[in-house]
Amino acid sequence: MAVACRIEKWRSDPYYGKVAVVQAGPGYVVGDFTGWIHGAFRDRVELPPGVYRLMSGGGEVECVVEPPSYPWHFAVPYMSGDWGGVVELRIYAPEPPEVPGGEVVELLQEERFSIYMAVVRHRRYEVRCCGKKAGFRSPPYVGDPGIRSMYEVLPDRSANRLGCRDLRREFCGGTLKDVARVAVDASRFADALYLHPIYPAMSYHRYDVVDHFQVDERLGGWAAFEAMRGELGRAGLKLVLDLVLYHVGLRNPLFPGGPFIIRDGSYTRLVTELAARLPRSALAGMLGGDPPYETFLKVWFMPRLDYSRPEAVEYARRVVEFWAPHVDGFRLDVAHGVPPGVWEEVLSPAEGRYVLGEHVGNPAPFYKAVRGFTAYVLYNGLINSLTKGAEEVADAVNRYLALTPPSALPYMNTFLENHDVDRAATRLGGHAQLSMGYALLFSLPGVPSIYSGGECGEGGLAADHTNRRPHTPCPDSQLAKLLETLYRLRSRGLGRGPHWASAKRGRIELKSLQSGVEVGSGGLVFGDTWGVREVRF
């Protein structure tokens, strides 16, 4: 049963139009809008209209933020965007609105209201609904991330130089030289490398960072980094680097004397002394229960920074400032655990670069600080519907569009798999479902990513890290050839502009005012003003 959120007031906001100040404390506010992670909000959170999941009294409740009036629409980035001659709108209303001269589609029906998309060809438009009408003008222009698709690589797993067997714990020995090799090969279907952490760290995945300002010597150090950058540049590949700023590694010199939340100082000092003397494998068997300091998901090796303290904000800003000249963009690890206002300050040195944040839920309160996020709403929808039917897929696509601002759509990282989830081939089972999934990603706005090995149809599970096997080339892969074709079609405008989905004769139609796409188990048909192109799977 949906319940109304405890709304203190509504506040004007230049990005959202208006937001509800929701009281949800005392303490950290945690919900699907924080990806169920602590740290971003305390006592209250500002939310645009929507239906959210919220932790309350030890359990989950559904929290409805209902607009105080209808139709609910503002000419702001959260609800409008000019793609260049075509304007895309979001309208909240309990009944179908009318936009003269435009087309209106219901994307998502909630209990008390629906979210509609409207598409018009004018920068002045009118919304009529519920016995009222209102005029709007000058919606914000939709930007271009400058990247068509990314290839995701976990550096240690770019090769198996060490003969690793325990994929959960052992280093496999991949270097930045190996990364460059596999990335250049992937330039057939990607124009950017999304590179996981390269810093000195305790684990092979390098998310327990020891030094944010160095390149791990195991990967080849700075010389290998510069050589890799040269290889990428010659292949026309940009570099998007993973930034880990929610937490640090247990051996990071910043810990424990820096900006952290320490519950037991003497116990914490004992842990750091052990960490300095013992290998990680020995520590892992000793550390259990609740850590004496706040961490990422109770992982002892990852104490989290306290962004209520200015020293943490300044440290993170210095990390961004240090790496900005060396890269073309950033992926922000656990972005949903850091207050949006902190990101606005921290990311100032990254202006002009592509930035996406990790968010495993609904990023609604973060969009004003970070333009794009990992599209887990779309991922979960597709991975659970592609083995069912066209109607379920269309509903999943439309739900994602309803919950994503028009201005954010081009910057969203869309994917069928990544290093944190099961391989798509394992979840979906067949070549047809994989092909349909990638055809949909490349046909929608956003920056689709292919996780290393995905072009080969690799299988594997997140639970045992078999989704992180060392890279093995697959020169004759039919899936890789399909990705090449889809990548070339994006240069023709595939995926650009407003789209909405419907089911027709067992196929998924992606409609827009400028083009049309049909995706089925046998192939894709893309039509625009230059003609029709059919791609068989």
UniProtKB/TrEMBL annotation:
It comes from the Archaea. Residues 152-490 form the Glycosyl hydrolase family 13 catalytic domain. GO terms for molecular function: hydrolase activity, acting on glycosyl bonds. The keyword Plastid does not apply. Pfam families: Alpha-amylase (PF00128). Keywords: Glycosidase, Hydrolase. InterPro entries: GH (IPR017853), GH13_cat_dom (IPR006047). One of its GO terms (biological process) is carbohydrate metabolic process. This is Alpha amylase, catalytic region.
